[in-house]
Amino acid sequence: MATKATLEKTLSRRQKDVYEYVRMFIEDNGYSPTIREIADGIMLSSASTVHSHVNSLIRKGYLTHSSGGVRTLALTKKGKRPKVVTQAGIMRWIQDKGIEETNDGAVYNLLADLQEGIQTGRIS
């Protein structure tokens, strides 16, 4: 079990690199990277070094993992950045879904409701 002092220590530059790589990989792919993928992604030749950094991040409370699997790393609340919903992000999502400019009243109502929710803080 990690001590309070361990949990409050700041991350080294390489630990931040590893954490950011894992975070972005999970965001992009929906599953965690392997140790080798992390090493390749941050240009380290030693999987052992990456493993050491991952273990430090687990001890400090930034990552968790399940034993017995290769892609079992997960982010904890400690290191997660809050998701921010913006009107531009909503518009991009709608365009990505193939709902181009339309006169559909339901789409415009949905967008207006989302925009109002963002501005009032109902949606965070």
From TrEMBL:
It comes from the Bacteria. GO terms for molecular function: serine-type endopeptidase activity. SUPFAM superfamilies: Winged helix' DNA-binding domain (SSF46785). One of its GO terms (biological process) is proteolysis. Residues 9-72 form the LexA repressor DNA-binding domain. This is LexA repressor DNA-binding domain-containing protein. It comes from Paenibacillus taichungensis.
